[in-house]
Design goal:
The structure holds 2 protein chains of 2 kinds.
Chain A (H helix, E strand, L loop, with lengths): L4 E3 L2 E4 L5 E6 L6 E7 L6 E7 L2 E4 L8 E4 L6 E5 L8 E8 L3 E3 L3 E5 L1
Parallel strand pairs in A: 2-11
Antiparallel strand pairs in A: 1-3, 3-8, 4-5, 4-9, 5-6, 7-8, 9-10, 9-11
Chain B lengths: L3 E4 L2 E5 L4 E7 L5 E7 L5 E7 L5 E4 L2 E6 L4 E6 L8 E8 L10 E3 L3 E6 L1
Parallel strand pairs in B: 2-11
Antiparallel strand pairs in B: 1-3, 3-8, 4-5, 4-9, 6-7, 7-8, 9-10, 9-11
The chains are: A mainly beta, B mainly beta.
């Protein structure tokens, strides 16, 4: 297990469709984070899990966004009824002491 | 609310020159990270600074942290084209490196180094 994996790498979807992204953290890391990065900006924190517990979700951007980590291993981020403004890079990071970021999922809503 | 400000946001420089990127933050923290991002790619960890006065160097890059001034710097020595990228600083206000607030990032410094 050499790093944080995210799938898919790219996703193009039509406005109004639902999308789901997956993150597989480093296996011994019990903390997992989701971030959104729009063009020309720094990553923006969305939500945090410690094991399977979602301990911070107030910064999810709207009620269309939800995240799960059902068994404390991989996590999913779902966006319902996508809008063009959701187009961004979605990054996952896991942490034991520092933070390791995955390669991200680039979402394009057309 | 924690604010992290980087400057400059854009920097064009010639190879061989030296320059410094500044990162100011608004609340107490002993943990600051520097990342590099190439276009379309994810974040590559450069430095983790964990205490006041911390200084770390890797090749032509050197980072430092002054927690009293709430300031970190990333110094580039004798720049080369391969260092062209966007550089982000990020502040962690947790006590243990990985807490419910995650990292708060600056807007990034887009660095272009011309041959």
């Amino acid at each position: 297990d050499t790093g944080v994996s995210q799938d898919p790498r790219h996703k193009i979807t039509k406005r109004g469709q639902n999308v789901t992204f997956r993150c597989d953290p480093i296996s011994e890391h019990n903390r997992l984070y989701w971030y959104r990065q729009t063009l020309g900006q720094g990553p923006e924190f969305l939500t945090y899990f410690q094991n399977e517990a979602q301990l911070e979700k107030s910064r999810l951007l709207s009620d269309r966004f939800s995240a799960e980590r059902p068994k404390g291993s991989f996590s999913t981020l779902e966006i319902q009824r996508t809008e063009q403004g959701d187009s961004a890079m979605y990054l996952c990071a896991s942490s034991n002491y520092g933070y390791t970021f995955g390669s991200g999922t680039r979402l394009t809503v057309v | 609310e924690l604010k992290v400000e980087q400057n400059p946001l854009f920097l064009s420089m010639q190879e061989g020159k030296n320059y410094t990127i500044y990162c100011n933050y608004s609340t107490t923290s002993d943990r600051l990270y520097w990342y590099r991002q190439d276009p379309g790619k994810s974040l590559e960890s450069l430095f983790v600074l964990l205490s006041n006065g911390a200084v770390k160097q890797e090749g032509r890059l050197m980072a430092s942290l002054d927690t009293k001034a709430r300031l970190s710097t990333l110094h580039i020595t004798a720049a080369v084209h391969d260092l062209s990228a966007t550089y982000f600083c990020a502040v962690d206000i947790s006590d243990s490196g990985g807490g419910a607030d995650g990292l708060t990032f600056g807007k990034g410094t887009h660095l272009i180094i011309q041959p």
